[in-house]
TrEMBL record:
It is found in: Cytoplasm; Mitochondrion. Acts as a co-chaperone in iron-sulfur cluster assembly in mitochondria. Required for incorporation of iron-sulfur clusters into SDHB, the iron-sulfur protein subunit of succinate dehydrogenase that is involved in complex II of the mitochondrial electron transport chain. Recruited to SDHB by interaction with SDHAF1 which first binds SDHB and then recruits the iron-sulfur transfer complex formed by HSC20, HSPA9 and ISCU through direct binding to HSC20. Plays an essential role in hematopoiesis. Acts as a co-chaperone in iron-sulfur cluster assembly in the cytoplasm. Also mediates complex formation between components of the cytosolic iron-sulfur biogenesis pathway and the CIA targeting complex composed of CIAO1, DIPK1B/FAM69B and MMS19 by binding directly to the scaffold protein ISCU and to CIAO1. This facilitates iron-sulfur cluster insertion into a number of cytoplasmic and nuclear proteins including POLD1, ELP3, DPYD and PPAT. NCBIfam families: hscB (TIGR00714). This is Iron-sulfur cluster co-chaperone protein HscB. GO terms for molecular function: ATPase activator activity; metal ion binding; protein-folding chaperone binding. It comes from the Eukaryota. It comes from Gymnodraco acuticeps (Antarctic dragonfish). GO terms for cellular component: mitochondrion. Interacts with ISCU and HSPA9 to form an iron-sulfur transfer complex. Interacts with SDHAF1 (via the first LYR motif); the interaction recruits the iron-sulfur transfer complex composed of HSC20, HSPA9 and ISCU and mediates the incorporation of iron-sulfur clusters into SDHB which also interacts with HSC20. Interacts with the cytoplasmic form of ISCU and with CIA complex member CIAO1 (via LYR motif).
């Protein structure tokens, strides 16, 4: 059970918005701290679970995995892909277009989203560069550009355009980017009941959510929002350091915490929209 002093640490929002709240609700808080792990909804909890997937470096294109029915072709004695249209070798990866006939190509199987967006495989990314790459690829691969082309090129442009869109939105935000990096390492975080979460952390989350439900002004919501942004910034630095050191379990636990605070950040935005 959490002590009164502990509650003063993990309940900054009620005391910030309503100075006398902590003294008048001490007994209720103590009970809540004892029961909090059973009262959180599934939406805001995570279950640690590993999938038995291949581990190692990020996924790279394995040319030998294509089925015989693939539109791609192979040169005899080579492991490079050939253009589906002119049969010339494709030397670039990813190969969006054939350099010989200029035909748009189908997406390679299992290609990394980092590879598509021409990003280094790391948690800390230049999002400005990511956006520029996204806009360039979408202009080049948009299906409207291939309305007068063959059916194959129309289909491939649609597939690549959708894949580029997925890559951009996955890598843009730290949470989805980090989860994808763990996925490439064979680790998955799924939603569920996290019975092993730290009680003080769970208590803090409950207090933030309850305080947010009770805010009366945009200023009160903004105070919680600024605190949440600070938490996310610290977590981002800690996750980056953990991944650089190869400490995947630590990164996994930190990403679970980031997911909670990302949910709160969205709730703050919803609350602010109510005041508009």
């Amino acid at each position: 059970m959490l002590s009164y002093n502990s509650l003063r640490i993990v309940c900054p929002f009620r005391s910030l918005l309503h100075p006398n709240w902590l003294m008048t609700n001490r007994q209720t808080l103590t009970c809540s701290a004892h029961c909090v792990s059973n009262n959180l909804t599934k939406k805001d909890t995570w279950q640690r679970q590993n999938n038995l997937k291949p581990t190692g470096n990020e996924r790279k294109l394995q040319y030998s995995t294509y089925a015989a029915s693939s539109p791609r072709n192979y040169g005899t004695g080579q492991f490079k892909l050939n253009c589906w249209n002119c049969k010339q070798p494709l030397d670039q990866t990813p190969a969006f277009f054939c350099m010989t006939c200029k035909a748009v190509q189908p997406p390679e199987e299992d290609i990394s989203l980092f590879n598509i967006m021409d990003c280094d495989y790391k948690f800390s990314l230049d999002t400005h560069k990511l956006q520029k790459r996204y806009l360039h690829l979408q202009r080049s691969l948009h299906p409207d550009n291939f309305s007068q082309k063959s059916v194959e090129e129309q289909e491939y442009s649609e597939s690549y355009s959708a894949l580029v869109n997925k890559a951009y939105h996955t890598l843009l935000k730290p949470l989805s980017r980090g989860l994808y990096m763990l996925e490439l390492k064979g680790m998955v975080i799924e939603e569920g009941t996290d019975s092993g979460a730290d009680p003080e952390f769970l208590m803090e989350l409950m207090e933030i959510n309850e305080a947010l439900d009770e805010v009366k002004t945009p200023e009160e919501a903004n105070k919680i929002g600024q605190h949440t942004k600070g938490k996310l910034a610290v977590l981002t630095e800690e996750i980056d350091a953990a991944l650089l050191k190869g400490e995947l379990q630590s990164a996994k636990a930190l990403l679970a915490q980031m997911k909670y605070f990302a949910n709160i950040e969205e709730k703050v935005k919803e609350k602010l929209s109510e005041f508009m």
